[in-house]
Specification:
One of its GO terms (molecular function) is RNA NAD-cap (NMN-forming) hydrolase activity. It catalyses: a 5'-end NAD(+)-phospho-ribonucleoside in mRNA + H2O = a 5'-end phospho-adenosine-phospho-ribonucleoside in mRNA + beta-nicotinamide D-ribonucleotide + 2 H(+). Belongs to the Nudix hydrolase family. NudC subfamily. This protein is an alpha+beta fold. About 25% of the residues lie in helices and about 25% in strands. Helix 2 runs antiparallel to helix 3. The radius of gyration is 21 Å and the shape is globular. The protein starts with about 25 loop residues before the first helix and ends in an 8-residue tail after the last helix. The structure holds zinc ion (ZN).
Length: about 325
């Protein structure tokens, strides 16, 4: 089967990685009036638009000082991120309407794709990159080997220790997320102990050190629901991915075939896991008994792929 047509994988800008090592790439971008900057503070983005906010793309003049990162180019013009320092509210930058998190702008992304709104799609792609990169800088200010303060190099794509020369790069933590389906074509969904009552989603978990993705799928389903996934090569099939920079995850989506159906949950993480038929899931969602994840999530895409159509409602 073809991979999913996911809303979060349609990038509309060029990361232009070859420019990161150009001398003064940031300074030259700042001198160019066609440059646009996304402004971040404590993981939130300066946005325009109420209700369905999108990341503001601001001209280079008049912005405060902060950590500047090179995100890439669009139509030959540079796109930067500006990370404002400090914990106190720095005030909304000129040209923006307020601050919002990536989960808020993701909702705009789904609407933008439906409306074929390229500007909004571009803003979201840049926003995901900016939030992921800014988050990494926020937690890697010191060398992992000697503890010295590190300096930013490669236009924000690496940090270097001035004492021992060690360089570190933005990291991404792979996580698997899977639609588990049994031989009666039922879907397994789980409810996490920490969630509001009635919330259900696909099972998911981080890939461990030295572990293949397929093995991570099998292990997580066994740990969280006590269900066995088939050992055959077609029993775990890749469906698509979604960057999830909270703080550094990459969600890798799979369809997995269950060869056992008895559910035994691990109370620490997943407190309930249930098999749903299509009619059963629709009825549970329509009655309000079950709430499904938001439309901007790969979890939702995996559920609706199995279902064969859009489902109503979301968290
Ligand atoms: Zn060092």
């Amino acid at each position: 089967m073809d991979v999913l047509d996911l809303p979060f994988i349609r990038t509309r800008h060029d990361r232009a990685a070859h420019r990161r090592t150009e001398p003064d790439v940031i300074d030259r971008a700042l001198a160019d009036p066609t440059t646009r900057t996304l402004v971040l503070h404590r993981g939130r983005l300066a946005v325009v638009g109420a209700g369905t906010p999108r990341a503001a793309l601001l001209p280079p003049s008049g912005l405060p000082e902060g950590l500047r990162l090179f995100l890439g180019e669009q139509d030959g013009a540079a796109r930067l991120a500006l990370v404002l320092p400090g914990d106190d509210d720095p005030g909304v930058p000129t040209g923006a309407d307020g601050w919002a998190g990536l989960r808020d702008t993701a909702r705009e992304q789904v609407a933008a794709l439906a409306a074929d709104d390229d500007v909004a799609v571009l803003a979201h792609g840049l926003a995901v990159e900016a939030v992921a990169l800014a988050g990494w800088h926020g937690t890697h200010e010191h060398c992992g080997r000697c503890g010295s303060p590190t300096t930013v190099v490669q236009a924000g794509w690496a940090r270097r220790c001035p004492v021992d020369g060690r360089e570190s790069y933005p990291r991404t933590d792979p996580a698997v997320i899977m639609a588990v389906v049994d031989d009666d074509d039922r879907l397994l969904l789980g409810h996490a102990a920490a969630w509001a009552p009635g919330r259900f989603s696909t099972l998911a978990g981080f890939v461990e050190a030295g572990e293949a993705l397929e093995d991570a799928v099998r292990r997580e389903v066994a740990e969280e629901a006590g269900v066995t996934i088939g050992a055959g090569p077609g029993d775990v099939v890749y469906r698509g991915s979604q960057p999830w920079p909270f703080p550094a995850s990459l969600m890798l989506g799979f369809r997995a075939r269950a060869v056992s159906t008895e559910v035994r949950t691990d109370d620490d993480e997943v407190s309930e896991a249930r098999w749903f038929t299509r009619a059963g899931l629709l009825a549970a969602v329509e009655s309000g008994e079950v709430g499904l994840p938001g439309r901007a999530s790969i979890a939702r895409a995996l559920i609706e792929e199995w279902y064969g159509a859009e489902l109503p409602g979301s968290w």
